[in-house]
Write a structure and sequence with these properties.
2 domains, alpha+beta, 3-oxoacyl-ACP synthase
């Protein structure tokens, strides 16, 4: 992957945090014990939950995109590709990536696409970006 590099990483979380105990209690009332899953598999003691109707996976993607642009002191026109990877996209058509592209003022020649690869979404998104940016890999993939 000579032509692709991760230049910057940012994180966005919803404001409301809940403890593992609160989540476990919620699911225990429904007859499910998820404590082991939350503590031993997912790790971390606190989780973030969306508690506002106007917040969703797309708005969180937009917010983190704005943070990257500000941190790197670039504009949306400097970004070659927007890949929105989520198991829970806000909508299927038009793509969520197009909304992010529009919000950040992306260049009209940049690529935008959504993908759902479940838990491997981020890794598959990086692989897709490397294929699009590396002519040798593109020839192999076609």
């Amino acid at each position: 992957m000579n032509n692709v590099r991760i230049r910057s990483v940012e994180v966005y979380h919803p404001e409301q945090q809940v403890t593992v105990e609160e989540l476990s209690s919620h699911f225990k009332k429904k007859g499910k014990d998820v404590t082991h899953f939350l503590t031993d598999i997912l790790g971390r003691n606190d989780k973030y939950v969306i508690n506002r109707n106007e917040e969703n996976s797309l708005t969180m993607g937009i917010e983190v995109s704005k943070k990257i642009i500000q941190k790197e002191k670039i504009t949306g026109k400097d970004i070659d590709m927007v890949i929105f990877a989520s198991q829970t996209p806000e909508q299927l058509f038009p793509s969520n990536a197009l909304y992010i592209h529009q919000t950040i003022g992306g260049h009209h020649k940049s690529l935008s696409m959504d993908m759902n690869a479940n838990c491997a979404g981020m890794l598959v998104a990086i692989e897709h970006a490397s294929v699009f940016r590396n002519p040798k890999l593109t020839q192999i993939a076609t």
